[in-house]
Design goal:
six-stranded mixed beta sheet, globular, Aminopeptidase
Length: 166
């Protein structure tokens, strides 16, 4: 961030008039970058023609108010504006766990949650689906995220890589 290759934006809501210090409330964050380490021009290009959105997080108690959708819309606009992005930005990318972990039966998909000691999530509620509803299109899947299962084995989660032309 010091090199200004990655920008982190706080998602805030104004303080209520009853707050004594009147400081805004941070309810989440989102970042935008044009550099990857190691370099990956498909995901983020130093010429800022392709930029990556990452680290979208909203506190659980604020997730039903549309803040994530508003943060995504704001970052999509900022990607075209210097110093955050560039008027030459043509596409935004991101990655998330494959929606198959929500929707496909089988030990390697929905069964993986149990191996991690986690509750199996409701079908149709994946982040991949949420991003698709925002206009992002999957262009590949590959093993990306490593986690340790309850039995100590290493599990490699499949990530879906999505892109939106802007």
């Amino acid at each position: 961030m010091d090199a200004k290759e990655k920008m982190l934006f706080w998602v805030i809501i104004p303080a209520s008039t009853s707050d004594k210090d009147m400081s805004p409330n941070r309810v989440g964050h989102i970042s935008l970058t044009y550099q990857k380490d190691p370099p990956n021009l498909e995901m983020a290009n130093p010429d800022r023609s392709v930029m990556e959105i990452s680290n979208l997080f909203i506190l659980p108690e604020y997730r039903s108010f549309g803040f994530a959708r508003k943060a995504m819309a704001a970052v999509e606009e900022l990607a075209k504006v210097e110093p955050y992005g560039s008027p030459n930005c043509k596409a935004l990318t991101l990655n998330t766990a494959s929606k198959r972990y929500w929707d496909d039966d089988g030990d390697e998909w929905r069964g993986l949650w149990l191996k991690m000691g986690l509750e199996v999530p409701e079908r149709g509620r994946s982040l991949e689906q949420w991003y698709e509803n925002m206009g992002y299109v999957k262009y590949k899947e590959e093993p990306t995220f490593e986690e340790t299962a309850l039995d100590g084995t290493t599990l490699k989660w499949i990530a879906s890589f999505l892109k939106k032309n802007i």
